[in-house]
Please model this.
Amino acid sequence: MSRYTYTNGYEPAEAIWPPVPKKCMAIGYVNAPEEPRFSRDIGRSFVLGERIYYMYGDTFRNDAGLISNTYQLVKDRTRPTDAIYLSCDENGLVKPLLELTEEEEALEKNDDIRTALWCFGGVVEISKGMGLTWYQKHQFDNKNNTSKLQGVGLAMITADERTGELTADRFGGALLFDSSEPLMGSFSATNEGGWVYVWGQKDDKVYLGRVSEWQCHDKGSYTFWNGVSYTSEWQQAVPVMQDMQQGQIVRSSLFGNQFPWLFVGVTRWADDYVMMGVSPTLEGPWLFDRVGKAHGFEGEASYKYCMYPHLWGSAESEGKLLVTWCDAWPGGVIAAEVDIAISILTFPASSLAKR
Model:
C-alpha cells in the first residue's frame, strides 16, 4: 500500500506500514535467581525513578503459596530476562505490591473469599519516583466456586530512592469505576501534556478517557472521548478499539511522525498472534496488523496472552522491539524480539515521498 508523506529535511529511516515482519523469536523466560521458579503472568514493565520494573499478576511458588500481584527490578536493560524480587517474607513468599485491606483479609480468612488485585494497565510516572496504577479487583468465592469482577481502583506507587523498593497506597481500597462501567486505566494508561490518558474495556470494546495528572483520584474529573471531543458522561463515549484483550499504547518513533502512537497486544481470542497498531493521535483512528506468532519453550498446546512492548529494551530505529507474552498455566512471562522491516530511503527537504 503506497502512502505519501511530506518530509522535513533528510530524515532517519522508519518502519513501513503495513508492517513487514522479519522475525518473532522468543529469548527466554523472565526469571528470578531464586529456586524453585515462580509461575506468574502479566509481565508489563514500567519506569519509575529511572529504574525499570516488571509487574505481575498471580504469582505462585509451590512451597509458599499464591500472591495476586508482585513486581521485579530489572538489573540491566540489556538483559531483559534478568530481574530480581526486592522483598520476600520469612517463608519465601514474595510480598505483594498492592496489599489487601483488613476487610479483604477477613473475607479470605473467615469466608474463603479471595481478593485478587491485577494491574494490567501498568504504572504512569507523574513525578520522579512516584506513579499511579489502575488495578482490577476480582473476588473468588472458593466455597461456591464463583468469581466476580468488582471494578477498578487507583493506587499511588512510590519508589525508594536508595533501594528501589516500591510501596503502594490504595487510597483506602475504594473503587473508581464499578463493573458496570468501562474499566478505565486497567487496559492501558499514559501521560501527555499534563493529562493522563486512560483506556478501559467494557464487553469487547475499548474506550478512552483523560484526566488531569493530579486529579486521577477524583472520578468526577474524568472525561471520555465521544468521537469529536471529551465529555463528562461515559455513556456518550465511542469505542476507539475493539476485540483487544490486553496490550499497551506508547509514544514511539518506530513509524516516524505519521504514526507517533503504537499499540502492541493480543486479541480477545488469544490466538497467539502479536498484534501491532498505529495511530496519528491518541484518539485514533487505529490501524492494526499481525507481526508474528508467539511461541513458548515448554510445549505449544498452551495459549499465549498478556502481550506488551518494552521500549527501554528496544532499538526502534532498527525496527527491533522487545516484547513479552505469557504462557498459560503453569508457564510464565517470556521475553521476545520482534523485528519489522525498515525503509532505507531518505528524502530531501519539502519533497513528496511515495512509499
